[in-house]
Specification:
heterodimer; A: alpha/beta; 15 helices; 20% strand; globular; B: alpha/beta; 8-stranded mixed beta sheet; 4-stranded antiparallel beta sheet; 16 helices
Chain lengths: 367, 487
């Protein structure tokens, strides 16, 4: 489904977004938290990047660092973020106002609290139109109503004059999307856009985002904790853990040749419809690392079923596999050394290895 | 879907919890309009079973859970816990039954009091139960009963009506008296005598006072007794307070042990955690603490209201596994409420699908997945994100539009406004739950065929061919063809 999009992307020359060695640090009373630690990636025009990870993996801070939405006090960002060839990491808030909404826009996680409760829905959409585009109030109103229509809000003329509390959660998220799309941004950040919503509304919203993206030839960064959400929708997936990218690959490659044990664990933790009921889920034991005092070696080592002596001392760097597949692991899944490591841990009775192998998934369609 | 009926209730067995024709309505102001949150829902729960209740927001699944707990009590319908109707219990008996029926809530952090320590939070049910075990002095129990009767009286619509009438009559008599007096001439003593009019006015006022007298007297006596008792009650309570005080140290030790054991069971290290407060824990840990709190009175039934919806997938798996383990080790029966059918399927023995306050389908989870018979179930199933990049999520049976208003729900089948199979019949007659095949109940006039692999074609890819043989009780229509028809 992505062939034509890729083609257009490559003809347009330079990538839309280049993030190079981005590092975001917060200075807290407890110490320095390195929430994003040396993340690099590029995003082509009109494509979707899915950023996946648990709470605390730094995925939200990553998108806010790129958007320049973090407070200026007690935060340090280093590295480089180039949007359409222009460095935007060091822009002041004043300069960023010309970029926010117009070039970069964001849909936030919680539609209940992200809209201004004392401002009519319509005004929240026209606000950025009037700021960025040279339009009259009437034109802005017409544009806003057609935006509301394009995000499939019934009776847009009526909704224009309503307040957020008069809308359901799904409707509010649609309004958020309309606000974000108002000025035709070239890159849309969707930060867990559906986590607060029901499954049915989730699929409606994700479909809507995808439609709008195709229509507007817009790039999108879709941040989520659920691999299922990005599976059919992203062109490329980046898995984050402990503030670092641990695996990134084109979507099909990632699902076919999962290399990092964390990606595999995330995948196996999802309850699936095609599994028998009462099938034991393969939870990832333990908790994400403390980013104030991160482990010296691989951050996933304490929870990893394939952990070896080497993982505790030496931090694996991203290495390149086939077709732009990158992963940071000494003993990757699906390789001889990885299997050997798992065997060794199994025979040694390492708890997380035994747990990981306890419920080998059985599909009711098997056989 | 969206049907009524109790065909799916199992008659001859030991159901721990049985809910019949549960209806919950919330009045809107004084307009007479109502939110029909739950309309005529029945369910039953066998010992050791997990019943999954699934549906979108606004389908009434949480309201059902809360109505079972009687917070607030249902508008109508029966809730039987091991054969006793919860509505027939008085306050103290209901408090006792709470030990057997517990609840876990959706948002783990906000369902724990931020100002209390974990130990106190988990111990609270024990403490309440323990305090209840000390009989209160006879006077206070007696007074409570009297006060209850008085309050009930005072709230009785007929009494209020009587007082209103009495007040009206009093005013009318007063008016009659004043007007006829004012109209009369001044006599030689400088007085006015209203004559017959004034006399009638006096009489009317007397009647009004006589009407109101019992209520006023009861209120005056009640208030007087109240004041006396309010002074005396602490005196009467002294022996009980002393008893509690004497027993406290031993009890606190026992509580420490029990709380530690409960925390241990849910995988929270007791020593370090007991003095901490909820904000020091992550969502998953806080949910474990909620589970410990629900477990501490060794309940028979736990109602889990979206226990994992606020959690990440990895933590979600931990909590689901924990619930399964605890269910086995404590011999629990669970009602598991969630919007994600995949999660519900994982933990349930039976699944009940709800839509806008009605039941659509009840079945064993594997049967439900193999062959959903209700169009809504199919939509719900196909909305679940599939972790397979080769499946285009946009090809699924997407449910268009929004949930209709529960204030004026659609006539007939409540799902018909969003259903692609809806016909005239669906708007005229409400479907009733009926048995289709073994243990599979559906409330739909036009159920999907048993071998309609519609969803499955898109959800499980290659499984389509298999469906025909495994659930092959239908018309023999190939799954692919049905899929085409449905689009």
């Amino acid at each position: 489904m992505n062939a034509e999009r890729k083609l257009t992307a490559s003809t347009e020359g330079e990538p839309l977004l280049v993030v190079d060695n981005l590092r975001t640090q917060f200075f807290t009373p407890r110490g320095t938290v390195t929430a994003v630690d040396g993340v690099s990636f590029t995003l082509e025009r009109g494509t979707t990047l899915g950023v996946v990870g648990e709470s605390g993996s730094g995925k939200t801070v990553l998108s806010r660092s790129i958007m320049n939405l973090l407070p200026s006090r007690n935060v340090k960002r280093t590295g480089s973020v180039k949007f359409a060839g222009k460095e935007i990491l060091n822009l002041s808030d004043k300069d960023m106002r010309h970029v926010w909404g117009k070039d970069l826009a964001m849909v936030f996680q919680d539609p209940m609290t992200s809209l201004n409760p004392v401002m009519k829905v319509g005004k929240q959409i026209t606000e950025s139109l009037l700021l960025h585009l040279d339009v009259s109030k009437e034109e802005a109103r017409d544009t806003a109503i057609s935006l509301l229509r394009s995000v499939k809000i019934p009776e847009p003329e009526k909704r224009f004059d309503e307040y957020p509390h008069q809308l359901s959660g799904g409707m509010r998220q649609r309004v958020m999307i309309a606000v974000a799309l108002a000025c035709g941004p070239r890159l849309l950040f969707a930060d867990e856009p559906t986590t607060a919503l029901d499954v049915t509304v989730q699929s409606q919203i994700l479909n809507l985002l995808q439609e709008q993206q195709l229509e507007r030839h817009m790039a999108m960064i879709l941040v989520t904790h659920d691999l299922g959400v990005v599976a059919g929708r992203a062109d490329r997936i980046a898995v984050m853990y402990g503030g670092r990218l641990v695996e990134t690959a084109p979507t099909t490659t990632l699902f076919d040749e999962m290399r990092h044990p964390y990606t595999e664990a995330l995948m196996r933790a999802i309850p699936r419809l095609e599994h028998q009921s009462h099938q034991r889920l393969q939870a990832i034991g333990g908790r994400p690392p403390d980013l104030v005092d991160p482990p010296k070696g691989c951050a996933f080592a304490p929870r990893c079923p394939r952990v070896q002596e080497r993982c505790l001392h030496e931090r694996p760097e991203l290495r390149l596999g086939a077709e732009g597949h990158q992963y940071a692991c000494h003993f990757p899944v699906g390789t001889p050394e990885g299997d050997e490591a798992l065997e060794k841990n199994l025979s040694a009775g390492l708890p997380q290895a035994v747990e990981a192998m306890a419920g080998v998934p059985v599909s009711i369609d098997a056989g | 879907m969206a049907g009524s009926g109790g065909a799916h209730l199992r008659r001859d067995n030991d159901s721990v919890l049985r809910v019949e024709n549960l209806t919950v309505e919330f009045p809107i102001g004084t307009s007479g309009a109502k939110v029909h949150a739950v309309s005529d829902v029945s369910l039953d729960l066998l010992s050791g079973e997990t019943l999954g209740v699934v549906g979108e927001s606004g389908c009434g699944k949480s309201t059902t859970g809360k109505a079972i707990m009687r917070v607030p009590p249902p508008t109508s319908g029966r809730v039987m816990l091991e054969g006793t109707d919860l509505a027939s219990l008085d306050t103290s008996q209901l408090r006792e039954s709470r030990g057997r029926l517990q609840m876990i809530f959706q948002d783990p952090i906000s369902s724990l009091n931020p100002r209390r320590t974990i130990r106190d939070i988990v111990a609270e049910p024990l403490v309440i139960n323990w305090l209840d075990s000390f009989p209160r002095p006879a006077v206070s129990r007696w007074w409570e009963q009297v006060a209850n009767v008085l309050v009930k009286w005072g709230r009785d619509r007929r009494v209020i009506q009587l007082m209103k009438i009495a007040l009206g009559v009093l005013f009318f008599g007063f008016l009659l008296f004043v007007v006829s007096t004012a109209a009369a001439d001044v006599d030689e003593f400088g007085q006015r005598d209203g004559g017959a009019g004034a006399d009638l006015g006096r009489l009317v006022m007397l009647v009004a006072l006589a009407l109101a007298a019992p209520v006023v007297a009861a209120a005056v006596v009640g208030a007087a007794v109240w004041i006396v008792l309010a002074v005396l009650m602490p005196v009467f309570s002294i022996p009980r307070a002393l008893k509690i005080r004497r027993a406290r140290p031993a009890f606190e030790n026992e509580v420490d042990e029990k709380v530690a054991a409960a925390l241990e069971e849910v995988g929270i290290p007791p020593e370090v955690s007991m003095p901490k407060r909820p904000h020091e824990f992550s969502g998953g840990q806080a949910q474990r603490i909620s589970i410990a709190r629900a477990l501490i009175l060794s309940p028979d039934v736990i109602i889990c209201d979206e226990p994992v919806s606020a959690l990440d997938v990895s933590v979600q798996a931990q909590v689901l596994n924990l619930l399964e383990d605890l269910k086995a080790s404590h011999d629990l029966s669970l009602i598991f409420i969630a919007h994600d059918l995949a999660v519900v399927k994982n933990v349930s023995d039976r699944v009940q699908v709800m839509y806008l306050g009605k039941t659509c389908e009840v079945a064993n989870p594997d049967a439900l997945y193999r062959a959903p018979r209700h169009p809504y179930t199919r939509a719900l199933m196909s909305a679940i994100p599939v972790a397979d990049p080769r499946i285009d999520p946009r090809q699924a049976f997407n449910l268009e539009g929004e949930l209709p208003s529960p204030i004026a729900p659609p006539s007939g089948c409540r799902f018909r406004t969003r259903c692609d199979r809806a016909t005239e019949e669906c708007s005229e007659r409400e479907p009733v739950l009926q048995l289709l095949d073994d243990g599979h109940y559906v409330a739909c006039h036009h159920p999907l065929d048993g071998d309609d692999g519609g969803t499955l074609v898109s959800v499980a890819g290659s499984s389509a061919g298999h469906n025909g043989s495994s659930a092959g009780n239908g018309s023999g229509t190939g799954p692919q063809i049905v899929l085409e028809e449905d689009r």
